[in-house]
Amino acid sequence: MKTIQKVNRPIALPLIGLVAVWSIMMFANWFSMVSLESYESIAKPSVYFYLLALTVGAFSALIAHGWAVKALAEDETDGLARAAVRFTVLAVIIGLAATTIFALTSFLSAFNFSSQSANVGQRLLWTYLPILLATGVVVYVLLRAFVFRTGVAAADGEDKPKMSERQKALALGYAVPILSTAFAIILGLFVYDATRTQLDTWVWVLIIAIVGLGVIFGTRFATKARQARVEVARPKTALAAGAATVNFVLSIIFGTTVTIMAFTMGSAAIGKLQVWPAWVEGTNEQPMPTVSAPTLQWWVQDLSLIHI
User: Where are the domains of the chain?
Assistant: First the structure.
């Protein structure tokens, strides 16, 4: 009976967490409508309720995953324990995906309103801080679920074993791309708020450059973890392969995004050289556009960024 309870707990906890997530989000929706007239457009207290809901869901899945792994370690032939591990892994992935979408949505929505009337404290509280907290949740849950659980548990009375070089590289392989992306979007928003000019292209180039470096270093750490030797008969490299796969997918997304941005921004930069004359009433002739000569400002602000 005791073993059955240990297997049932990791299956029940994510479902309980899902109910809690739904409840908090419903309250957040209500609170958002009630407080709509009480706060300025930039102040959105409900964003923290949404973040709280996602955090509850992610951590409930993380705790349940730990229980499931422990139950399977006690009896590797238990089919229900194996199913519980797969179920909790799926719950963890869904929680990570939802929290990541929340962070990206917060970033993109920050460009949808003018922040000229908002001070630094307001932007930090309602825009930057939720993104940082969501990133912290993603990194912590990811590492605890798929990296640190691979360590050997210490016996009672013994010191906790230190992280191996492979674990360190594996953790960096997962965390570096995520942290670099979070840093890039925070820095991009900061530059956008500070300048409030038409140099939006610089902001995007800065973002993709930092993300690209994060993917490169993440791939190197993942490769190091994959090639590391472990003192067991049959080394398990599935997690290292997973980190390498994450960075490989990010590399493809990064390359595709940069290519699309290069073509789009390049066409827009060339289009800025075309000048349409003012329409003169009473004439039947169709005014023809002219092409102005490239200037140094045009090279710096528009075209030069496409080649970086």
Answer: 1-146, 162-277+289-308
